[in-house]
Amino acid sequence: MAFAPRHPAIAVDELVSHLRDLASNLWWSWNEEGWSVFQTLDPTEWRATNHSPIGTLERTSQARIAALACDPMFVKRVYDGLAARAAYLGERAWFQRSAAARHTNFRVGYFCSEFGLHESIQQYAGGLGILAGDHLKSSSDLGIPLVAVGLAYRHGYYIQQLARDGSTQVLYPDYDFGRFGIEDTRVTIGCPIGAHIVTARVMRMWVGRIPLYLLDTDLKANAPEDRKLTEGLYKGEPLLRLRQQVLLGVGGMMALKALGEKITVLHLNEGHAAFAALQRAVDLHAVGRSIQESFDAVRRATVFTTHTPVPAGHDRYDPKMVCEELASIAARSGLSPAEFADLGRIRGGDASETFCMTVLALRLAQRVNGVSQLHGEVSREMWKDFYAGTASKAPIGSITNGVHTKTWIDPDAERFWRTEIELRLGKQAPKATGWRRATEVNRARFWELRSRLRSRLVHFVRDRLAMQCKRRGEGQSAVAATYSLLNDDALTIGFARRFATYKRAPLIFHDPARLAALLARTDRPVQLIFAGKAHPRDEAGQAFAQKIFTMTRDPRFAGRVAFVEEYDMHVGRMLTSGCDVWLNTPTRPYEASGTSGMKPPLHGGLNLSILDGWWPEATDGINGWSIGGTEAEPDSKLQDAADAASLYQLLEESVVPQFYQRDAAGLPQGWIARALQSAATVPAEFNSHRMVAQYTRKAYLPANEIRGS
What we know:
- By secondary structure, this protein is an alpha/beta fold.
- It has 3 domains: 12-90, no CATH class; 94-401 and 694-700, Glycogen Phosphorylase B (Rossmann fold, 3-Layer(aba) Sandwich); 426-686, Rossmann fold, CATH 3.40.50.2000.
- Helix content is 44%, strand content 14%.
- The protein has a 9-stranded mixed β-sheet. Strands 16-15-14-17-18-19 form a 6-stranded parallel β-sheet, with helices on both faces.
- The longest helix has 29 residues, at 443-471.
- The two termini are 36 Å apart.
């Protein structure tokens, strides 16, 4: 399909139609040819809508649109964007070139409770959703036959604001799905949940080649309590959470059937989606197989990824409540209430054991994996009793997470690597070997890049802090003061992630006096930038955020510590591109993977991390620093003290001195060598193209198809 305007100008309604077309597929979100069109349309509205194409279009004045319709350069950019997308969708991708001929009926159904696709589409809470969004984008890029299923949350997760004392204020917006680029399929399902048949409409978003179906129960046909099933992400008491998971799993499988989407392999991304496998088994049972034969068939064709190394993080419910909310499914299975409850128990017949969603997923999935090598080890130990009582016999492998490079790399950095080492991120393949030449770049130009990205981050943070001061009504002097905070040339350390307590966000403040001495030196200044959100009911996590906010007001850290509210994908991109060092301080081994640290190396950033999650696989002693060791202290206070001491020593003796040790040209040659080693080693392996290809080869393709499903 060719997109070439016959005339320099086009009609306004034609331009609007083309812009809506360009916004209708999330391809724009990871391709500059797409998103830059809307940024140019109205830069002010682009920022105001948190980079929403449809929101920007709807808020742009008619006069501005009319003027652009007569601008041949803008019109050409629109047509070029449409042409680039058409070429992308029409090309034979990696899977079509390498495996499609041998797997003609192959199709994956990918179920997850959240999807982090873009900051303007707030349907994610943290790393699980970001990972799911990157999985879909890489599946699209590689041409994997995959369809995704989730829920459409009217309130999203929540908007975070900090009060004057640093306490968290939780705001629940009411999102307009029309601005998400969602289309109504006009298909509805009736999902049995407890005593109700809950009506859900099925909506669809296109993520490149991948359809993402989202269920919405906020309909007049439903009772008020059923409308709340898709009100918000991870809200409410256990009963609401259980009912949401029934909707996701049971309702999601019903939606695929109603849409005519025939899947051969089921991928449960975390235990929240485990009821999808149960529904699939009951459907097989209904057409003549015994229930055990149905379970066996589903098990052969199901992949389960667990993300939680903390026992308390696995959803557990009262078995009686599960049987009540799944009464229709239980009846169709032919199992007694006790047998049905045992599906989610390690010890069959133990009435004292709760119903665990992870156990159900383990029971109905033949291929199970953690999300890093270390997490695989932790998971085998955690679930050994489910198998044979020993970790060595637990068939749980690992596929280490990765990040979608085109989503997370700054355009300035992408242009730099393209120029310096001819890196072509548009070439979609599982292997990203081009990064290995990163050490060959011109070091002066690399340092110029790092300085630009850092400076841009500093100004971004100042603007955000000014807005935060204005919202809190702190006065003009406080607002003005924000513009003198931080330093464009100072060593910048970033920490941004979900504020679960095991991630220990305040660890660097363990010895405030020692840290103050490090940060305050005028000859080699250091600054810290934080962002992160705790669950609305996680008071301990919110207390961590409040503690860090308080430190930003401490005179000892004046101008050197900042906390940016409302951590989202945009804030994440700004911090991971601009920070020189990415700090990661979880209590080992509670970080299953942790993908945020994979993003700074795309920009020549360095990791300073506990040996947890993905980092033990990546560190080579040059491409970053490792805090502490692998031996655990007997209690948490001793562990915090030991890790903090190691962190301070690294900062004092290695990190800070290397950053400020300059040659005659003003370049920190030792630092640059580390930074380029980071770029040469991390992105080549820790990317979602490698991850998705690994899922395809190790898990998806070996899974047996279920005939007649």
